[in-house]
Amino acid sequence: MERVAIFIDGSNLYKGLVQHLGSDYRLNFVEFISLLTAGRKLLRAYYYNAPLPPEDPAAKAHQSFLNYLKRVPYVAVRLGRLERRADGFVEKGVDIQIAIDMVRLAFVNAYDIAVLVSGDGDFAEVVRVVQDLGKQVENTTFHALSSHRLAQQADRFYPLDDFPWERLRATLQAQDPEEG
């Protein structure tokens, strides 16, 4: 059975969820991961993000969501940081964590297929390296956020736009409040 590792760019996914489904949409991550796994053996789903600064009105809900994810079986949360700039905050360290984990786990033969949930074209070269290590890479994101270069490099691209979002909607009992 094929072994799958899922790498989720949290900011990219959240942006797509807000654009496609609205800011009040809450995703059931267990069901989402199950859909991405598609009946294959899940190694782990890695979720990458940066915690919001305490002064941000959404910081408490975001931290609650990250705490929820840490309790989900076979999910690992990897956090970068936010750096203050003149025009706001910039996420730092997240993309490099994704790239390192994808390559490191491919190198040690931990998975057969990587599922990258991101539309960031910077990952195209990482995908090529992972493929050179003998692994397949699937890429998914919303069309509006998709990098043509990344989608072309991946072995398979499928848009999140077509997912059954009502079925993937979290109920209040299913998870804590979250940002996406």
Automatic annotation (TrEMBL):
Domain NYN intervals: 3-161
Coiled coil stretches, renumbered: none
Pfam families: NYN (PF01936)
Cited InterPro entries: LabA, NYN
Protein name: NYN domain-containing protein
Gene source species: Thermus composti
